[in-house]
Each structure stands twice: as structure tokens, then as C-alpha cells.
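Notes from the 1:1 (GR / supervisor)

We went over the backlog. Supervisor wanted to see one worked example end to end before approving the batch request, so GR pasted a single chain during the call. The sequence is below; no edits were made to it. Supervisor asked that the structure be written out right there so they could see what the output format looks like.
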Amino acid sequence: MGAIPTCTAWPLTAPAHPVVTRDGSIDCFAVHPNTNIILLVAMLECKLQELYTYDLASGVLQQVSHFNDACLAGKIRGAAPRS
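Structure output shown during the call:
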């Protein structure tokens, strides 16, 4: 069995299944009912919090903000979690 990701978003309807599964944390989210796009505030890939969109139809996760790029430029990021 593979490692279980550290953050998983689950739907509130049955049958339950993981929707977004990545290493990191999802701190808050909102789902747009007309477009089925989830807007996430998340810490992924050893980065500080950024905004991401997740398309429920295609399964594509896209980072849409770069608030912390300047802060992290030239810095060593933390190591990935051990499994």
C-alpha cells in the first residue's frame, strides 16, 4: 500500500471518495456551484499558503497566486515529509 497523502478533500455527498489528494494542507476552500471549480487556500509542495483552483471535471489543480515567491526566492525550502 502506498503512502497516504497528508491532505485530502472529500465530498459531502454519497458515495464518499477523495476529491483533492496532495501532500500538504488545505486550509480552506469554496466550491462554485455553476462551474464546479474549487478555490483552495493551501500549503502544497513545501510552499507557504497560496491560492489554487481545482477543476472537478478535469481533475486539474492550478496554482493561481504567487504571494510568497519573493519571500522564498533564493531560500532553501523545508524537506518533504518522511513516509
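Supervisor's comment: The CA atoms of residues 47 and 71 lie 11 Å apart.
Batch request approved.
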